[in-house]
Amino acid sequence: MQALNPRLIAAPFGRYSHGVAVPVSGRLVLTSGQLGVRPDGSLPEGALDQARQCFANCAAILAEAGLGPGHVLRVNGFVTERAHFPDYMAARDEFLAGVAVLPASTLVIVSGFTQPEFLVEVELTAMENT
């Protein structure tokens, strides 16, 4: 994987790459959007704990495919309020701690999810190079 951060544009605002290049051979893994729902069906209060659970759920999906955070090409995050941005970023940065080539990343503020108590959703695109 190669990070693409051209000097002709401003540096990324956080721990992500503007673009990521990968070889065309490999196995692509896509997660559905993951909400902050724990395995027992409960929902943590607050955006930080929900975001952490979103990334934990994504990590479990990656692990099922034999992959980890270092295989992630792209992170798409969604929050219901601008105020949740710092909590989401903290959880994303925890998830990517130790990753050598940071993935591309987008965060969108949305009007809501299927239930009003959901504050954060995360989806990942990952690839195992063969």
Automatic annotation (TrEMBL):
Q: What top-level class of enzyme does the UniProt entry assign? A: hydrolase
Looking up CDD domains in the UniProt record yields: YjgF_YER057c_UK114_family
Keywords of the record: Hydrolase
Under the heading InterPro entries, the entry gives: RutC-like_sf (IPR035959), YjgF/YER057c/UK114 (IPR006175)
Write down the superkingdom of origin. Answer: Bacteria
Q: What is the lineage of its organism?
A: Bacteria, Pseudomonadati, Pseudomonadota, Alphaproteobacteria, Rhodobacterales
Q: List the protein's name.
A: RidA family protein
* Keyword Hydrolase tagged: yes
Q: Does the keyword Calcium apply?
A: no
**EC number, as in UniProt:** 3.5.-.-
Q: Which PANTHER family does this one have?
A: BLR7761 PROTEIN, YJGH FAMILY PROTEIN
Tell me one Pfam family matched here. Ribonuc_L-PSP
Q: GO molecular-function annotation terms?
A: hydrolase activity
